[in-house]
Write a structure and sequence with these properties.
two-stranded antiparallel sheet, two-stranded antiparallel ribbon
Amino acid sequence: GQGPYFNDGQVCTLCEAACDACASASACTECMSGWYLLDSDCVADCAAQGPYFENGALCTPCEAGCDVCTDGETCTDCTSGWYLLDASCVTDCGAEGQYFNDGEICSLCKTECVSCTSASNCTGCVSGLYLLDGGCVPNCAAQGPYFNDSDHCTACGPNCSACTDATTCTDCSAGWYLLAGNCVADCAAEGPYFENNGTCEPCEANCEACTDATTCTDCSAGWYLLNGDCVSDCPAQGPYFNDGDVCTACGGNCDACTGATACTDCTSGWYLLNGDCVADCAAQGSYFDDGSVCT
């Protein structure tokens, strides 16, 4: 009751300055008014000693990662490597929600982003939007040759200007042609196809090459080309014979033949003589008209 002293052997020794009660010269237990107890010492300003705040007559440490605070729940400056978010300190802004590490603080991402690395670079979009080049869009295809791929935009394949997925193109770039979901430079090089308004269309049946749907230029094996079509038997089409892979017309006035100089049947009024058709057998020598042949 005599003042701020402590029992020091057989004498009373004065506590240190600003100390109202102590257990030893270095162990203050209560400070004078206007001073605050910190680790058995009395200080005039808690914050000047480090990450502490004035809590009644005591200095109380700020929360983890906080360098300056006004109370146990309100940080105003964080330790290096920590970021200030709503008066608290966190090690990763993104782990707390729609925020990014912005210097020493957490800043909010754009409203359409669920995650971002900066105010202009989104890394994830809200439901219904798709990530493209750091932004969020409602429809990937409207931005160019992209398709909606889960939660982001993915580029279509090479030379494809529109697609529904990575392997299904629906429209090709200029100079390229659509074939079975892919873009090709030359339809004919891919098989029996022809170019038609940016797409590869199939040639008609039994045709190996064509210029359009009705003009074949080469037929499959066992078929013969006749006036842009493929036929299985030339003579069945008229006065023609199978000539390699094409139908060739028989000679004049010949209704059937096996070769260019081998007529087998002549037009009415003409007579067959040694593979040719003549108008008058007798004029050819010692022959007479014997039905449709010269004998």
